[in-house]
Specification:
Strand content: 15-25%
Largest sheet: 4 strands, mixed
Number of helices: 12
Oligomer: single chain
Structural class: alpha+beta
Order of helices and strands: HHHHHHHEEEEEEEEHEEHHHH
Number of strands: 10
Length: 379
């Protein structure tokens, strides 16, 4: 297993870093964070750079890239702006069900538009009564001729308010086990009966989290992805990539915290001496680096496993737990290094403190991931 980046990957990593430096200045990030405003212009620049479709086949407008490529993009974007990393996730990861399970017509219809930034996606799985037990969802889809009529509600759906299409999971057969009776639909957000309402939240400002209400919404049969009652298999493939994405986003956030902590420790003086010379501060930042390196290697290994077609449900859960908890812990330590300044809105450290917590919850809580790991070990 070789983690040495190829020349192409090194070029990609530098290009994304240069992009982030140009388009994600501290002033731009702060302005969008304070207003909780979606960065339409930066999204457009991501599309121009050709990265939105990096994991999609070339014949559908993508770049034919792999999991390691997308990991590097997440890491570099989130080193500057965590919300932009999640925005990128909505384009790179949410439509993967189409790549793996979609019909030829669905691929031709959607993937090029996604890659070129014309279509924005969201993924609707979670419901008010089914979060950790996602397969217990109640949203119901009933076949009527060539259409399905959908009723129900979704919650905590990232980017639904700016999405053109939503990968919606609904129950199509209540007579079988909860995992077997689900289907995934491509919901057009302009459809009659769709109502989307943002939910104010603590962090990741710039991409809103939303509730979706569905009342007698009609979806054509041709917009079922992967076949009727096969939705859970589509979900599982999406979740593997989502946990990789979370790992990569978290290590990008960790690196940003370390960078800011080092910069502050070398500049801030106590009794005429930079606090970075104090052993207590040095050890705190050294611990940040140790944990971040471990999270990075776990994440890169997961990318390698995905790229080589190896089963990796356990490893994906390990990455989700370790990287998310590392980011949350390091963000707290970063605030501690900056002291009272870290608790003010004038410094970016408070944003990491706010942004990091959701990763221990979203995409499957740390407790759920530990259960997956334990079960995979035969417990």
């Amino acid at each position: 297993m070789d983690f040495e980046l190829s020349e192409t990957q090194r070029i990609l990593k530098k290009a994304v870093g240069d992009f982030s430096e140009r388009w994600c200045s501290p002033d731009v990030v702060r302005r969008h964070d304070e207003a909780d405003a979606y960065p339409h212009d930066v999204y457009g620049e991501l599309a121009k750079a050709g990265w939105l479709g990096i994991v999609y086949p070339i014949e559908y407008g993508g770049s034919g890239g792999d999991a390691m490529d997308v990991t590097l993009i997440f890491e570099e974007l989130c080193r500057r702006w965590m919300a932009l990393g999640l925005i990128y996730h909505t384009a790179a990861i949410f439509p993967l069900g189409i790549r793996y399970f979609g019909s030829e017509e669905q691929k031709r219809t959607h993937l090029r538009d996604i890659a070129e930034g014309r279509t924005r996606f969201a993924f609707a799985l979670t419901e008010p009564d089914s979060g950790s037990d996602a397969a217990a969802l109640r949203t119901r889809a009933v076949r009527e001729g060539d259409e399905y009529v959908v009723n129900g509600a979704k919650t905590f759906i990232s980017g639904a308010d700016v999405a053109n299409r939503i990968a919606l999971v609904a129950r199509t057969d209540p007579s079988v086990s909860k995992h077997r009776g689900l289907s995934m639909f491509l919901l057009d957000t302009r459809s009659t009966g769709v109502r989307i309402q943002p939910i104010p939240k603590l962090g990741i400002h710039g991409l809103r989290t939303c509730q979706i209400f569905l009342e007698d919404v009609r979806i054509p049969f041709t917009d079922v992805v992967g076949g009727v009652n096969n939705g859970w298999n589509v979900v599982l493939r999406t979740l593997e990539w989502e946990r990789l994405s979370i790992g990569a986003r978290c290590i990008g956030g960790c690196q940003a915290v370390i960078d800011d902590a080092i910069r502050y420790a070398n500049q801030q003086k106590h009794s005429g001496t930079a606090i970075g010379t104090f052993q207590a501060i040095q050890h705190m930042i050294a611990d940040m680096e140790i944990a971040t390196q471990a999270a990075r290697m776990l994440t890169y290994r997961l990318a390698w496993m995905i790229d080589h077609g190896k089963p990796c449900a356990r490893e994906a859960a390990v990455v989700k737990v370790f990287a998310s908890e590392t980011y949350a812990r390091i963000a707290r330590m970063g605030v501690q290094v900056l002291g009272e300044y870290g608790y003010t809105m004038d410094f970016a450290m408070q944003r990491h403190y706010r942004d990091s917590k959701i990763y221990e919850i979203g995409g499957g809580t740390s407790q759920i991931q530990r259960g997956i790991i334990a079960k995979s070990l035969g417990l």
